[in-house]
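Hello,

Our lab assistant flagged a job as stuck in the queue for most of the afternoon. It eventually completed. Since we weren't sure the result was trustworthy after the delay, we are filing this so someone can double-check. Below is the sequence as submitted and the structure that was eventually returned. Let us know if re-running is recommended.
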Amino acid sequence: MCPMLSRLARHRPSSLVAYTVAGAAVVLATFLPWLHSGSTSRTSYDLLGVLARLDIAPHGIVSRLVTWWPVVPLLVTLAVVMAWWRWWVPSMLTAVVAVVYAGGVGTTLVVATRGTGIGVGIGPLLCAVASGVFLVTSIWMVFTHASERAARARTAGPPDDPS
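-- returned structure --
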């Protein structure tokens, strides 16, 4: 690995900034166009209303996923705030839940509509990619900060006796 990338990977503030930007991208992706229907573009939140009106997801897990979709921005925001408060592991666990949910829905929509003629917007693809980046940065952040604690613990012993 080149020295510049190695230095960046060990730089703790850059992991926190990258994590925040990735989280913002996940939230932003939920507000971008997800489907095109004629001249109308629909966000992921518009799709909730369409699914409810058409009674496409009346029961079961799909219905619950649709109902709880507005929680995604809250989960992402909670994960980022916990990271800024230096609660590394709870932040990563919250990020994993958000990534599985948002990234899973985005990826499923992109894959399921391939070759069907349904006009998919940029939202689901960006949501899937940003969720992956959010996951990687959450892991990066936890391990860089864990290595910081380990390095501090090794040097925290009493100084050697020079005599």
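-- support follow-up --
The delay was a queue issue, not a problem with the job. The result is valid. Helices lie at 3-10, 12-31, 44-54, 60-67, 71-84, 88-112, 122-155. Residues 23-147 form one domain.
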